[in-house]
Write a structure and sequence with these properties.
The chain has 3 domains: 94 residues, no CATH class; 240 residues, Vaccinia Virus protein VP39 (Rossmann fold), CATH 3.40.50.150; 212 residues, Adenine-n6-DNA-methyltransferase Taqi, Chain A, domain 2 (Adenine-n6-DNA-methyltransferase TaqI, Chain A, domain 2, Alpha-Beta Complex), CATH 3.90.220.10. Helix content is 35%, strand content 16%. Strand 20 and strand 21 form a beta hairpin. The radius of gyration is 28 Å and the shape is elongated.
Length: 574
């Protein structure tokens, strides 16, 4: 007996179950090298079950089910439960993993589709008997089938109000077949087309009320999905100031705004990095000017097959800037410089209200090396436990504990146990910068869940790129005060708020000198001094607890609990 998966209010199954997986696997195993004939078998099975006559037509050619696939045993309960969704689900299964990565194709689980559409409704999207919708990258048709189930009206009328585009002919064919199976009648001729949405002129499409979907995630800096020079120039001309190397997903967002009516809604999945990446700022600025955000959905558990953190944007063309709904919290509209504060709330970061005042850069020099400093150290690094100037990489830094010599480090693709720098061998162009770091300082790692800082009281270490060096410039603030300030729930929460999504995962922080320099100084100097002493003793949690009091947030156990949970177990001191 098949265990029923939960369904949405519209009747859409939410969670793929074992029976579905086994059915898809049986079809896939028999598919050979003909995925279209395999999908045709699924279409035929659903049509037979429902008493319909529906065929799979790919690029105008009708495709028959391959005999081997047509003979595959079909689970009637799977057909009954998933029906119109099966052609798209099978098409997704047949796309090889390397193809998904190369073309940024990562399909949307049914439960995610429902959550995103729920958010769109919360943000004011209203489905009426005249609502029209477009998916610019239909994939398996999951979004349009879900939208269709929410639209009022007869099914044939609903399908007549839908449009879809995809570069994959089989994706378009599977979507059309699924909608035909759902409605009993096919969509109008020409409503679905095989094309690159970014190459389609907006005037060639009928304006719609809603654009919804999951566009391909394709960085234009590397990978097989890089556009041609002509395509880059065309997009740069289309959106002045955005740049030629805009990620495909964000370019889809801009193009979607061009095809929705005034007051229309854009609901698109995006990589979380789009919210905070500096090179995406022109896109965010253009979106806020033309289609301000209304809501943000955050995938906390990576339910997509892509190895990337994911969000979904809900934006309204021509609307006024207003609160943005994130996890049920109404957040103020973000500045285009960064939407990361929204992502941090969606990822569960506690909120902190802060007011302008003295910051870390007022009492310390905050700096980090870049490419020149990295290359300038080449040829000057050796492995020597007795070396005078240890090279400290991010991997050697834990909260309040330096693990140099205890944990192997890598520099310039070479593994070291005790990496040290011979200052005389450093390139002359960067030697003054390195020698300037030979002062008491705090070293801060990058790409971590909490700010991880260690003290170099003797001023002997060399920070390896991208380690940040924080050097006191105020005689009343020593390195232990600085270490305590950084080893704090407040510092981590504020940094996550400002930089969420820019690291390798949404749960990490990409530390930069600029952001560290903007961290606020505490108000209670006595509590700060106490925290500094606990930092000297290596008491990570005690230091963080005292820093909460120093910032006047001693009544925020939720903040302390959140921070402690992120500390590496080996470093918590608990």
């Amino acid at each position: 007996m098949m265990r029923a998966s939960p369904v949405s209010p519209s009747g859409i199954p939410l969670t793929p179950d074992r029976a579905l997986a086994e059915q898809l696997a049986r079809w896939s195993a028999a598919s050979g090298d003909d995925p279209a004939a395999c999908v045709a078998a699924a279409v035929a099975a659903v049509a037979t079950h429902s008493g319909q006559q529906v065929a799979l037509t790919v690029d105008g050619t009708m495709v028959d089910a391959a005999p081997a696939v047509a003979e595959v045993e079909v689970d009637p309960e799977v057909i009954e439960r998933w029906g119109p969704w099966l052609p798209g689900l099978l098409r997704e299964t047949l796309v090889p993993l390397e193809g998904r990565r190369g073309f940024g194709v990562h399909h949307t689980p049914p439960d995610v589709v429902e959550e995103i559409l729920d958010l769109a409704e919360t943000c004011g999207t209203v489905w009426t008997e005249s609502t029209t919708a477009l998916d610019p990258a239909v994939g398996g048709g999951a979004f349009l089938l879900a939208v269709a189930s929410r639209l009022p009206g007869s099914r044939s009328d609903v399908v007549a109000r839908l449009q879809g585009i995809d570069i994959d002919p089989l994706a378009v064919a599977a979507t059309v077949a699924g909608l035909t199976l759902w409605a009993g009648t096919p969509p109008p001729a020409g409503a679905f087309q095989v094309a690159d949405f970014l190459a389609v002129e907006p005037s060639a499409l009928s304006p719609v009320d809603v654009v919804v979907g999951n566009p391909p995630f394709l960085s234009q800096l590397k990978g097989s999905g890089i556009r041609t020079r002509e395509d880059r120039e065309r997009l740069a001309a289309r959106w002045a100031g955005v740049g030629r190397y805009v990620d495909d997903a964000m370019a889809f967002a801009l193009a979607s705004v061009d095809v929705v009516v005034e007051g229309g809604v854009v609901v698109l999945v995006q990589p979380a990095s789009a919210l905070g990446a500096a090179d995406a700022e022109p896109v965010r600025a253009r979106l806020m000017a033309s289609a301000p955000l209304r809501g943000l959905w955050v995938d906390r558990t990576r339910r997509f097959a892509a190895d990337v953190d994911t969000v979904a944007l809900v934006a309204c063309r021509g609307g006024d800037e207003g609160p943005v709904s994130v996890e049920g919290v109404a957040m103020p509209p973000p500045a285009s410089t960064s939407w990361a504060p929204l992502l941090s709330v969606g990822a569960g970061t506690p909120l902190i209200e802060w007011h302008p005042g003295p910051v870390l850069s007022d009492v310390a020099r905050v700096t980090s090396g870049f490419r020149d400093q990295f290359y300038g150290l080449r040829g000057a690094v050796d492995d020597d436990p007795d070396g005078a100037h240890p090279l400290v990489t991010s991997g050697a830094i834990d909260p309040l504990r330096l693990r140099w010599g205890l944990r192997p480090s890598r520099f310039d693709r070479v593994r070291y146990t005790h990496p040290v720098v011979d200052l005389q061998l450093v390139d002359e162009g960067v030697r003054p910068w390195v020698e300037a770091r030979m002062v008491p300082k705090v070293l801060v790692a990058s790409q971590t869940k909490v700010i991880e800082a260690v003290v170099d009281e003797a001023g002997r270490t060399v920070p390896g790129t991208p380690v940040v060096s924080v050097e006191p410039t105020d005689p009343e603030v020593d390195v232990w005060h600085l270490a305590a300030l950084l080893t704090s729930p407040v510092a981590t929460a504020l940094l996550v708020r400002e930089a969420a999504g820019t690291a390798l995962s949404a749960d990490a922080v990409r530390v930069s000198a600029r952001l560290l320099g903007s961290l606020p100084l505490p108000m209670n100097n006595a509590a700060w001094a106490s925290a500094a002493e606990q930092a000297r003793q290596g008491d990570v949690v005690g230091c963080g607890t005292s820093m909460l009091s120093a910032h006047g947030l001693g009544d925020r156990p939720d903040l302390l609990e959140w921070w402690v949970a992120r500390i590496p177990a080996r470093s918590s001191g608990m």
